Prior knowledge:
The structure holds 2 protein chains of 2 kinds. In chain A, strands 2, 4, 5, 6, 9, 10 and 11 form a 7-stranded mixed β-sheet that branches. Chain A is built from no helices and 11 strands. Chain A has strands at about 5, 10-15, 20-25, 30-40, 40-50, 55, 65-70, 75-80, 90-95, 105-110, 110-115. Helix content of chain A is about 0%, strand content about 55%. By secondary structure, chain A is an all-beta fold. In chain B, about 0% of the residues lie in helices and about 55% in strands. Chain B has no helices and 12 strands. Chain B has strands spanning about 5, 10-15, 20, 25, 30-40, 45-50, 60, 65-70, 75-80, 90-95, 100-105, 110-114. In chain B, about 35% of the residues are buried. The interface of A and B includes residues 109 and 111 of A.
Amino acid sequence: xxxxxxxxxxxxxxxxxxxxxRCKPISGHNSLFWYRQTMMRGLELLIYxxxxxxxxxxxxxxxxxxxxxxxxxxSTLKIQPSEPRDSAVYFCxxxxxxxxxxNSPLHFGNGTRLTVT
Amino acid sequence: AQTVxxxxxxxxxxxxxxxTLSCTYDTSESDYYLFWxxxxxxxxxxxxxxxxxxxxxxxxENRFSVNFQKAAKSFSLKISDSQLGDAAMYFCAYxxxxxxDMRFGAGTRLTVKx
Lengths: 117, 114
């Protein structure tokens, strides 16, 4: 089991540039989550997908942020244009949910550390 | 909305001793799940232990156990025989049975002294 794979591990970019973060969930998992981690705000849920469909994007901070899941094995989080305050660690996580209650633990990737200068 | 509170920003324990990390949560739901995650310096989030709210028995995983007090909305993590490798940030998390997201506390940084 390769686990959740995120790329890149580190990203440094200049303000105003477009940034794309990538995630490959665990094969067979049908839920995917994007979190942002900062010292000030801790772990914040940005958006989650179920069966490739965005279910709740209320955590997405601004229209500059967008997320897609074109298929069950790939998701992207894009920031355009990026700003210094977007600097954080971005985590992708996946889980398998059956027809019952949402009780599965989330499996996290290693995160992408984004620095916007 | 559910909130998760970890009141101890930092904790320290001597190697081989026992330490308890606190977590409380606020919810009006009766069906939910609670988790503890560990985040070492490598940054990866690692599941430590999980508790179903409908179970009265406290979950245990080797040296890790929880004290789940549903009425008090408390979910503490006990680490026995602490090891140097236990040093990490520990996050308490709440997941509603009806809502496909997970909410995290602010975390507790655990230091293990040799």
